[in-house]
């Protein structure tokens, strides 16, 4: 099976493009399929949008569901994870005294989203520092879980961090959150096409991922997964024809969120072309080789700078992820440059926690060690 070369992309030949994590490059054949969908729509816009598009979207969601390990009616397309998380945050109806628990590795847009939502509600925004070099997966889980209190309403976690490229062990924390009645939301923006993903194994309430990064889909193509038990309380960010639909489908969740007024649906519908490209270009091999090169580059940089690694795991070997479509349930590590936290059986100490008690127009925080207590201190 061939692997992709720069000739498969539309990139400037003088450019060495390494940053698929911000805005991934689209293969020429995927771009061609994307533009073909746009041209097909323009031949008869009304017929295409009103009659053809719903069928095509259902097919695309089925293909997406197979890719991420979810039922087609449990996923909907969004232009980006930021929009998806804002929709979810808008539906939480936080109350004064509620707490949103996260780490200090989350993406900047999400940090701003939660600060604003908590400030408006008078809720507390609790960030658990995860120090680098990191220790073990067990230590990470205990550090985060030690910050849970009776007031914790939401657990928000990155699956693969943007700034530090660490694969967090979110499955155990989602399992604990479900048992405790805490809403679990996972930001997996960098995961699809980068490391294996099987949502059936995570037990999270909500998961969002971008397909326009490592999965090679056109810009503006992401998804939101919602567990069936969470779908009932997720009302649309934009109310349109799917609300109290004249022609309801079998999924109110899809009806509410799929149609957001007139917009270009072509990026969503080009998902199949993107996944086809990955599957016919040895994407497992691409992931493994990218991971090997990332480790080699890290070793060289560490040797030059004499700086410690951000993780203490033994990543000398490369685990080859499964085929892109469908996902493997047995493979949990590997990827282009994400480093999974190592496993261990010991429990970590209580983390140093930044707690922000937020009120409308005001942000207050304290940092302390040891026993968790209610936040106070000076205004930020």
Outline the fold blueprint.
Elements: H1 28-43, H2 45-68, E1 75-78, H3 81-90, E2 99-103, H4 108-121, E3 124-128, H5 137-145, E4 152-158, E5 166-167, H6 170-180, E6 183-187, E7 206-210, E8 222-226, H7 252-258, H8 266-269, H9 271-279, H10 283-305, E9 339-340, E10 353-359, E11 362-368
Parallel strand pairs: 2-3, 2-4, 4-6, 5-9, 6-7
Antiparallel strand pairs: 1-8, 3-10, 7-8, 10-11
Would you kindly provide a written description of the structure presented here, covering whatever features stand out?
By secondary structure, this protein is an alpha/beta fold. It folds into two domains: 49-275 and 349-357, Aspartate Aminotransferase, domain 2, CATH 3.40.640; 283-340, no CATH class. Helix content is 33%, strand content 14%. The chain contains ten helices and eleven strands. The protein has helices at residues 28-43, 45-68, 81-90, 108-121, 137-145, 170-180, 252-258, 266-269, 271-279, 283-305; strands at 75-78, 99-103, 124-128, 152-158, 166-167, 183-187, 206-210, 222-226, 339-340, 353-359, 362-368. The strands form two sheets. The protein has a nine-stranded mixed β-sheet, with helices on both faces. Strands 5-9 form a two-stranded parallel sheet. Helix 1 runs antiparallel to helix 2 (45-68). The longest helix has 24 residues, at 45-68. The termini are far apart. The model is unreliable at 314-337, 343-352 and 358-380 (pLDDT under 50).
